[in-house]
Amino acid sequence: MHLHRYEKYWLIFGVGTLVVFLSVIGVTAFAHGHHPPSHMATVDAENVRASAPFDEPGLKKIDENTYEATIIAMTFGYEPNKITVPKGSTVKFQLTSQDVVHSFTIPKTNVNMMITPGHINQSEHTFKEAGSYLVLCNEYCGIGHQNMQMEIEVTDE
Prior knowledge:
It contains one helix and ten strands. It is an alpha+beta fold.
């Protein structure tokens, strides 16, 4: 089979592009540790509020600059619906839903999780700028969906 010179160029270009693309994905996924914000931990969806750590939702200080936020998503809100952390702190979020599929999205950050009943999702973010961050639900969860929001207040200390 004879290939024209320009066909060979395009094949080399196409295969080269594919190799570069797969290399970038591989380095990003494995070397930098980027992965979807989900874990295989589960909780009984029928008894979320009786299961640790969701029996005490809220914000807990782990060390000087690290906090753990345990949050329950429900129709049509989050519990707690407001948390306050100092600027520069890292917050480790762990969430579950007690009823239907929700999401936990903080615009202009890398935090964007789909929250399903019975599963515990985890993600973390370091808040480098002070201000008020709005948390939204991007999964339609019913007639009051537009009211489902939460606030994260980042203070200058």
